Amino acid sequence: EIVLTQSPDTLSLSPGERATLSCRASQSISSSGLAWYQQRPGQAPRLLMYGTSNRFTGVPDRFSGSGSGTDFTLTISRLEPEDFAVYHCMQGGNSPLYSFGQGTNLEIK
Amino acid sequence: EVQLVESGGGLEKPGGSLRLSCSASGLTLSDAWMTWVRQAPGKGLEWVGRIEKKTDGGTTKYAAPVKGRFTISRDDSRDTVFLQMNSLKTEDTAVYYCGTGSGTITIGHWGQGTPVTVSS
After folding, report:
1. Which chain B positions have a beta carbon within 8 Å of A85's beta carbon?
2. What are the residues whose beta carbons fall under 8 Å from the beta carbon of A65, sequence distance 6 or more?
């Protein structure tokens, strides 16, 4: 089983600042299977990034993803008020078993 | 537009069973791999399992905490996927989501979730 560990657990920033969220895998994974989801309170998750660095339909270009092997990053270049939410990384794709990180809570400072 | 609607959640006692359904529209279900994910109150997302499309073998895979107790099946003629949950435990209490994707996207579309509470 591949364990994903996200850091930090909570990130406190102000609108306009840059956010960098990390997702580390317990073993090397295919970059094609790494995705990021945003979840607002009371809502289902929403896909932001797939295949590590591809933005899903309608996702603003202030969101970007990078990484390979065991270390992956989601960057939000300039935070908008609607970006404050919980972010989850997930490994799937061709992996036999999928898994999620524990989530990073991006909160307003 | 792809829409997924889960149903069948509710309150059940430990040791009991529930069957969740996920009804799909806006896609050809027979072409889709379907995934179940759950979220316990105040916790992160947890992958439950998946079922491949029949032309890929229809194989099911499960996370360790539910393997042997939960079963995913599909009825493509009814555009519906099921999650049969047996021997329920209090730690199975969560909102259960179904999801689907295509190509390299594992889950691009999510349902709204159905809550399951396991309590005596």
Report:
1. none
2. A34, A36, A48, A49, A52, A53, A54, A72, A73, A74, A75
Q: Do A19 and A106 meet the contact criterion of CB atoms below 8 Å apart? A: yes
Q: Which residues of chain A have a CB within 8 Å of the CB of B44?
A: 86, 88, 100-103
A48 contacts A58 by C-beta, under 8 angstroms: no
pLDDT tens, residue by residue, A62-81 = 999 999 999 999 999 999 99
Facing residue for A56 by CB, picked from B45, B108, B111: B108
On whether any CB of chain A is under 8 Å from the CB of B114, the answer is no
A59 near A49, Cβ under 8 Å? yes
Reported as a single tens digit per residue, the pLDDT across B46-82 is 999 999 999 999 999 999 999 999 999 999 999 999 9
Among A39, A46, A47, A105, most B C-beta atoms within 10 A, so best to mutate, is: A47
Chain A residues closer than 8 Å to B50 by CB: 98
Interface contact flag, A93 B35, Cβ < 8 Å: no
Separation in Å, CA of A1 to nearest CA in chain B: 9
pLDDT of the residue at B12: 98
d(Cα A55, Cα A35) in Å, to the nearest integer? 10
Mean pLDDT on B5-31: 96
Query: Which structure tokens are listed for A56?
Result: 């899903």
What is the residue-wise DSSP string for B29-58? GGG--EEEEEE-TTS-EEEEEEE--GGGT-
